[in-house]
Design brief:
380 residues; alpha/beta; Rossmann fold; two-stranded parallel ribbon; 11 helices; binds uridine-5'-diphosphate
């Protein structure tokens, strides 16, 4: 079946209307006029937040998404906008990609297999989606001379546990027979393709390496730790910490990540280059679990699961992953504005809303059937 396009109908969300002319679809455009963005994977967690932000700044957004891991409901805030359109289709479908790229000025390629659980369970699907998908998108962008931002991942650093990791830090990988290192390689191939198109074909490409990004709409289904642990805490279930919990991560709010992406899209000097985007507040997963229990007021306990039970025999985790974000900061002024407490507030508020278990008291605290006693912010 071919791609299905859902035309946008009306704007019910108070989005800013512009009568700017459309941008010329090439490198270095200052993005002053209305820019027509294509977001592959735009029904996903990060893509849907990016779509909202671009519409708010007056641009046009089309989304190409297979809805395999993304959800159309993620686009509830934008799908009525007259400047938004949605096409259900895969980045492996050359015709769908060709049509979508032809109709835009700038491509943000986010469609990818994501989540450690998914890449361990479906390595072939993950590799094909990432490598062939990137080739298909870059070929189409080259055909129509469209600027492309390619989303890469901190996974490309592998088990380089030194920190903070800058864009020139080494990749330290185990055997390619381990799904995680194969996935890491697939994202590195995406990067290499983007650089090659820039250097050999003069295609304006930007690579962003996203570190642990979290926030509302992130699915717990593919292994991500914060949506999983928060749901467990709210449901008064044990929090599953993998390994001994001493491994550390830095989490960045999706709204900050989207701000970084947009700053780089607006910056012609970002073309042909790679940028880390991530939070810098380092925390161990054990401490994170404890913080989530305290913040939710949950009665949950913490259980430790060996990696071979959580994932597979031979699974290797990164002991530490801390980004150096100096480069993007120097070029665009970006830094993450929201801390881990802000992130947890937003995720907990969403989980409580979805669980439908909370009731609100006059002072803004939550009384719920899950015996949570946490105070939520006014805007939750
Ligand atoms: N993790 C955990 N419990 C879970 C899910 C994940 O302890 O239910 C751990 C996981 O092993 C890793 C960290 O939390 O050490 C972050 O996992 P995530 O999948 O969110 O991101 P990544 O491993 O890609 O950094």
């Amino acid at each position: 079946m071919g791609p299905q396009t859902v035309p946008a109908t009306s704007n019910g969300y108070g989005l800013r209307h512009h009568d700017r002319p459309t941008a010329t679809p090439m490198s270095g455009c200052n993005l002053g006029p209305v820019t027509r963005y294509l977001i592959t994977g735009g029904a996903g967690f990060i893509g849907s937040h990016l779509a909202e932000a671009l519409l708010v700044q007056g641009d046009e957004v089309s989304v190409l998404d297979s809805l395999s891991t993304g959800r159309f409901s993620n686009l509830a805030g934008v799908h009525d906008s007259p400047r938004f359109s949605f096409t259900q289709g895969s980045v492996l479908d050359e015709l769908a990609v060709d049509q979508a790229v032809r109709g835009c000025d700038v491509v943000v390629h986010l469609a990818a297999a994501v989540g450690v659980k998914l890449i361990v369970e479906q390595p072939l699907y993950s590799l094909t989606t990432n490598i062939k998908g990137a080739i298909t998108v870059l070929e189409a962008a080259h055909r129509y001379r469209r600027k492309v931002m390619v989303a890469s991942s901190s996974e490309i650093y592998g088990k380089n546990n030194s920190g903070p990791l800058n864009e020139q830090s080494d990749r330290v990988l185990g055997s390619p027979t381990v799904a995680r290192w194969a996935y890491s390689t697939s994202k590195a191939v995406d990067e290499i393709l983007a650089y090659a198109y820039y250097h050999e074909r003069d295609l304006p490409t930007i690579v962003v390496r996203l570190f642990n990004t979290v926030g509302p709409r992130q699915s717990p289904a593919y292994g991500m730790v914060i949506p999983r642990l928060v749901r467990q805490a709210v449901a008064s279930e044990p929090l599953t910490v993998y390994g001994d919990g001493s491994q550390t991560r830095c989490f960045c709010h999706v709204a900050d990540v989207v701000d970084g992406l947009i700053r780089l899209l607006h910056e012609p000097r970002a073309e042909g280059d790679v940028f880390n985007i991530g939070g810098t507040e380092e925390i161990s997963i054990q401490q994170l679990a404890e913080l989530i229990i305290v913040t939710t007021g949950s009665s949950s306990s913490i259980v430790h699961l060996p990696y071979e039970v959580a994932y597979e025999v031979g699974f290797e985790d990164m002991a530490r992953r801390v980004p150096d974000v100096t480069k993007v900061g120097k070029l665009t002024g970006w830094r993450s504005e929201r801390n881990l407490a802000d992130i947890l507030d937003d995720v907990i508020a969403e989980v409580l809303r979805d669980s439908g278990s909370q009731s609100w008291t006059d002072d803004g605290s939550v009384a719920s059937s899950t015996s949570l006693s946490r105070t939520v912010p006014d805007d939750a």
